[in-house]
Amino acid sequence: MAGPKTKFYCRECGQESARWLGRCPGCGEWNTLIEERVEKSKPTEHRGIVQAIPLTEIQTMEGQRLDTGSPELNRVFGGGVVEGSFVLLSGEPGIGKSTLFLQMAEYLSRKENVLYVSGEESARQIKLRADRMELSSSRVHILADNSLEAVRSEVLNKGYKVVFIDSIQTMLLEDVQSAPGSVSQVREGASFLLKLAKENEITVFLAGHITKEGAIAGPRVLEHMVDTVLYFEGDQHHIFRLLRAVKNRFGPANEIGVFEMRGCGLADVTNPSMFFMGDHTQVSAGSGVAVVMEGTRPLLVEVQALVTSSIFAPPRRTVNGMDYHRLLMLLAVLDKRAGYAFGTRDVFVNIAGGLDVDEPAADLAVIASVMSGIKDQPLGNMALIGELGLTGEIRGVSHIEQRIREAEKFGFQNCLVPKVNADSIGKTDCRIIPVKNIEEVLDFLF
Fold first, then answer.
1. Does the annotation list 42 as a binding residue?
2. Is 92 annotated as belonging to a binding site?
3. Domain final residue, candidates 270, 285, 301
């Protein structure tokens, strides 16, 4: 008698293969194919004839958004959660995903009943967290079950319009013969919930685990199915958390919200620049302030640099909060265009506050901080905006007026900006200092 049929699936992209391969033919990743049992699918009922609808005859529900109760969270979603949307929230274990979901469920239950489904915790454990957070809404209903069929039955029988699933990796479809968390279960479970959400105009929130590399666990197709993908970031040993939208069909992507983790839950940080910038009144050598854009929000961040004589060969380059190779490029430009050699110097760069900065507009603050550390001269009350090119030119950046207004709000009297952006800046109390290349920057600062 023949044994059960198995196939291999890539846990990164969901590519199917009849045999095991070291490298996935779909995404090119190594050692990602896993074996799963395959059962013959049951015949489905014919749904009848489906006809296409002209675009002009489709009825829209413009402006139908749910208020989450948090200004920071509403900002990330683009003004609130769109009714009937499918949202995925991912983050490291213990970062606060369940806490955020429970707070959202409490606020959204003010208008109608909300279903909170947990496949990881019992109802008693969720109640203990709710008591600690001082949440006591009778309209938040808890279902401690990992069967998606049971979830669908509960939702349709009682008419829930908002559902939280914690988490998708623990959910189980009985028709799929594999363990919870497998590629097949995550893919088919997400498809099952997507159909439930779109056919019945139900807003569904999913919590998702991440791998050790920081990607969402399960097939990559999961991110393509949902309307919004949110990443919850932050250090478990610090109280601040960042919520970043990496995909949003109903609002701007790369928008961030900043929260503070407290004993009673997550609280909005309404002035994140103050947190990331630190105390800018304490001017010291090796410290500069950059104005970066996160989505539509300008943020002031402190760039710290330390340059010391090296006792190792080659010298060390340590970076926290920015791209390592970007720093190497900036040091090479300083060496070639400004004549400052770093072959015998260790360079340490840190973005204070734990924010990861990948915007080129922070280049000017990085090189200014490095040179300030070498010369042991403070930069003074100054915000720095600009991208450094390989030929030593200072290139223009976007949203220059928003950046200047943010710096002005925090009392900065001087702003070093690219010369190409200077003409587009309106009236401001800041002194605008346009610079064209790296030589002009160093001449002005030192």
1. no
2. yes
3. 270
Please tell me the total count of domains within the chain.
3
Task: Find out whether 35 is annotated in a ligand binding site.
Answer: no
Helix (H) or strand (E) holding 234: none
> Is 96 annotated to bind ligand?
yes
Q: Is 97 annotated as a binding residue?
A: yes
Output the tens digit of pLDDT for each of the chain's 446 residues. 455 677 887 876 777 888 888 888 877 888 888 777 666 545 555 556 668 889 888 776 555 789 998 999 999 998 899 999 999 999 888 888 999 999 999 999 998 899 999 998 999 999 999 999 999 889 999 999 999 999 999 999 999 999 999 989 899 998 887 778 888 888 889 999 999 999 999 999 999 988 766 667 667 778 889 999 999 987 656 678 889 999 999 888 888 898 988 888 899 988 888 777 765 555 688 999 999 998 888 999 999 999 999 888 889 999 998 999 999 999 999 999 988 889 899 999 999 877 888 899 999 999 999 999 999 899 888 999 999 999 999 999 999 999 999 999 888 989 999 999 998 888 888 899 999 999 999 999 98
94 annotated to bind ligand:
yes
CB burial of 262-275 (b: ≥16 within 10 Å; e: otherwise) equals eeebbebbeebbeb
Question: Which residue range forms the structural domain that includes residue 10?
Answer: 6-37
Whole-structure pTM over 0.70, yes or no? Answer: yes
